[in-house]
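Internal tracking record. Fields below are filled automatically when a chain is submitted to the structure queue. Please do not edit lines marked as system-generated. If the sequence contains nonstandard residues, flag them in the REMARKS field before resubmitting.
Queue: standard
Priority: normal
Entity type: single polypeptide chain
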Amino acid sequence: MSKTALRPPRGMRDFYPDDFRRRAWLFDHFRTVGQSFAFEEVDAPMLEHAELFTRKAGEEIVDQLYHFELHDRHLALRPEMTPSIARMVIAQAGSLRMPVRWFTVTQNWRYERMTRGRKREHFQWNMDVWGEPSVTAEAELIAAIFSLLDQVGLPRGEVKIRINSRALLEETLRKGVLAQRPEAFAPLCVVIDKLDKIGADAVIDQLTDSEGAVGLDETSAREVVGLLQLRDLDEAARHAPAGSHAFEELKRLFSLLEAYGVREDVIFDASVVRGLAYYTGIVFEAFDAAGTLRAICGGGRYDNLAQTLGGKPIPAVGFGFGDVVLGELLSDKGLWPELPRCVDDLIFPFGESEREAAIQIATRLRGQGRRVELILDSPKLKRAMIDANRIGAQRIWMLGPDEISRGHAKVRELATGKESEEPINPD
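SYSTEM-GENERATED OUTPUT FOLLOWS
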């Protein structure tokens, strides 16, 4: 077997015990926050029909699928969770009590260029609200994001959330540069979502590409890029049509976030559009305040997704929160907790003649809910004591010929060194 085959594929990860404890700690916080907001956890297959993800809007995600054909079926590993959730909601829409409040913690795959905080396999926490058209849903979700950040120990101010409205941008452009070409809005969003990655000049080049899906003249393209620089909500309103519903939604959202106590860490940013074509309204991204990492999480409203996939229209909003960028941020801030291995009891039979009694003790303690390691070989006592301390055991049970003859095991509390005797087979 080659050395390459003995390593995980590029962009994938092995989780050794220390890594897995960190992952479990983080997932516990995802679930705690989801449950504290009264969301229910669901799951779906990691393998889906590829057409669930192949929307025709020039999205990068279509080219990033891990996909294959088998028995005349075109299948793909899920790159994200939202379409799967949409499929599940559509399947039981008639019997679901709306609004639906679901969360997931899932593994996802995208074949994309790797940078710091970006791998080709990642875990993601999603929270989604289906059946609620008002921005009360967005406010609840953004509050949940801040709750998670509080849970993992990130001080307020270390992470900000940038908010925009694709509906507001669409209203603004349709009264101007897209007045005659409203169908160009979705591909335009795919292009301008790259602004931070490729810069304004490259975005203008793509917007003015005569063979592209947008096809603006240079003056119009520069006007679009200029709108993306807006950081003041009232200034954005001056560019929007009079009586803009999207602007009123944004104002309402910021007012609700004030009530949640998170308004100071939320910023209006007209450049946030999100690259997925299904977003229809408010969109948002969380980022570290120092600006050293890519987006920590992102989401928004996607009211047309159910209809696009063949179901009836259902208003929906949600976010995806990956584990990789957050892990980088926790490392940078020194906020990963110490997560030692947790073992309550180590059972040490001196030799094979004591093993059956050791098994009886281990079985009884495990039945009581204790975490018990039974030594499987026959080391010296000194080695057993070293092992007990290494794994953080609270007690070591020692069984030699004398203990067996008396029907008692010697038990040492490792924190204090205090020793006592416990019956091997208590009545």
